[in-house]
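Continuing from yesterday's entry. The apo prediction looked reasonable, so today I'm repeating it with 2-oxoglutaric acid included to see how the binding region is handled. Same sequence as before; SMILES copied from the compound registry.
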Amino acid sequence: MNLTSEDIEHFDQQGFLIVEQILSLEQVAQVIESMARVYRGEFTLDRRPQHIRAAHKRVWPLGLPDSVQWFLNARVCDGDFWNVATSAEIGRVAATLLHSPSVSLVEDQLLNKPPQGGRPVKVHRDYSYWTFSKSSEMLTCWMSLVEASVEMGTLQVIPGSHKWEYVQTLQLNLMDGSEQGWLSAAEARCPAGTSIELVPVVVPPGGGVFFHSLTFHGSSRNTSNCVRRAISLHYASERCRFDVSRVADHLFPYTFAGLRDGGPLVNRWMPQVYPPRSSRTSTIEK
Ligand SMILES: O=C(O)CCC(=O)C(=O)O
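Holo prediction written out below.
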């Protein structure tokens, strides 16, 4: 993936960049296979601490039966998915778009949306779930594993919305899934005189979108007969700093182990993926 200066400028101005091919078709096939296994609760290399594994023998996806089956942090449970999620190549693109010398991977998601009416995901900003970082210099790489279309309920982004006012609000009902109020979070922040435009991410399998953590995005109903399969990876720039006061009610508190308040967001579960650690000995502390 080679980015042009126009690509970087587009990301800076619009808050997103659609890329036709991020994963190869071979990688897509492998990820689909690993995903099916992870959804069955079968893992190749479970990196969770022993006490967490003992307490949570089964790991269920979040969501309703007909909403996105939201499986968070699969990399921590599964070795195959760890390898995909920690790709230095995707990390390099994330670092370039964030204008950061390095990036760490702070979260990942498996995102199967059921066919024949799978519910919409309300429009939201990812940073509102990541206030454990004092900075919003973070981004998401969302990748489709199928031929993505509006009919399938592909992701849609709102251009320029990363520059709109930010007010910390946690939307807890992202997947409860009616069309009503689908856009309400964006409508509340849209500057007067600006109309909301939605850009659907229509890409072949392996394609996707990089978008800023403040870019509003969501997805509509899957009206097709096929499962809409997707994954997303979430990165923090080197300038992000840990805010320990924000993790009290986080779903996966152990993933913050060893992080120092005000220190970099890098530990064994949130690895620096670019540059790979072997080629760079330490993260710069500022
Ligand atoms: O896949 C979807 O429909 C929503 C994904 C999403 O919101 C995300 O990856 O941040």
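Comparison notes:
- The longest helix spans residues 25-39.
- Confidence is low (pLDDT under 50) at residues 280-286.
Will overlay with the apo model tomorrow.
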